[in-house]
Amino acid sequence: MSTPHASGPLVRTVAGPLSCAAVPGPVLAHEHLVLDLDLKGDGAAVLDVPHHEEPVTRELAGLREHFGLSLVVELTCRGMGRDARALARIAERTGVAVVAATGWYYEPFHTPELEGASIGQLTDTLLAEVRDGLDGTDVRPGVLGEVGSHGDTPSDPEARSLRAAARAALESDLSVATHAQLGRGGLAQLDLLTGEGLPPQRVCVGHQDLLDEPGVHRELARSGAYVAFDTVGKESYQSDETRLRLLLELLEAGHADRALLSCDISRHGYLRTEGGQGYGHLFRSFLPRLRAEGVDEDLIDLMTRRNPLRFLTGASTEEI
Q: Which first-to-last residue range defines the signal peptide (predicted)?
């Protein structure tokens, strides 16, 4: 993996600090490489080490070779089956830098520690991971996420976890990526996070490609927050045709500098080895459609490389 340069904005990866200047190719801004979201007991929402680490590794290595994939923001956090050791192995074997995360997903996946805990106590838990490492390792998170809520207004425990993430982000100079279930509640999430003093440019509101409300996307972007079109290829939730329309509307409104793109692979059935769209669907299918609509390479580089690096580091447009 590239050695960090001596100066300039740094991304905190599982292998340590990495200069943004050492990230020459695209970034997947919201993915999962190892996770367990199996609430139904059918094993579908799982990417586990024994069965899936090898195909995940092969996919990423292939994307590095064919599309120059340089970094993956891996948003599996507490209660989602995170495995920092596996992330470090995958990064080392593929040559693709990986950013690990901490925080709490939305309420159905909350861990018992949230029950009755104050915002301060939750903040301390997150800062301990930032300081000491994840899952008994010295791997430190480079982002708070995907901090979740569902519905138009976060529940009480979701609000506490969002506020704790904001406070931890401020103290550690990290950013916050959210999970807005089916795209809803993003403005309420942003209000909570910025209400704790977190600048909007350190916030990425997730899954906005599942919400067919261009006005909300524009409002988020005008605030300075990043707007994630991060479930590209998940046709059972939303068609890529609709995603394309919504993204083009955001670009036409002048907010290309706020858009982030990714595929959010969260089931083993999405892997290429199992007939799914894979982590590369963005590069193989969606970006060619954007190009066909007249989106040029500079804008594509902005959305797939510079924007995610700016989000992670808080750097200005001039710095990256």
A: none
- Encoded amino acid at 304, one letter: T
User: What value, to the nearest 5°, has the Cα angle with vertex 261 and ends 288 and 153?
Assistant: 140
pTM, full prediction: 0.97
- Closest to 85 measured CA to CA, from 151, 136, 126: 136
| 175-199 pLDDT tens trace | 999 999 999 999 999 999 999 999 9
Answer yes or no: is 198 within a domain: yes
Residue scoring higher pLDDT (3 or 114): 114
- Whether 73 is in a domain gets the answer yes
Number of domains in the chain: 1
Q: Look at phi and psi of residue 224 and say left if phi exceeds 0, alpha if psi is from -120 to 50, else beta.
A: left
8 A C-beta contact, residue 228 and residue 30: yes
DSSP states of 67-102 as a string? H---EEEE---BTTT--HHHHHHHHHHH--EEE-EE
User: By residue range, what is the domain housing residue 271?
Assistant: 10-319
Task: Specify the residue for token string 């920092």.
Answer: 84
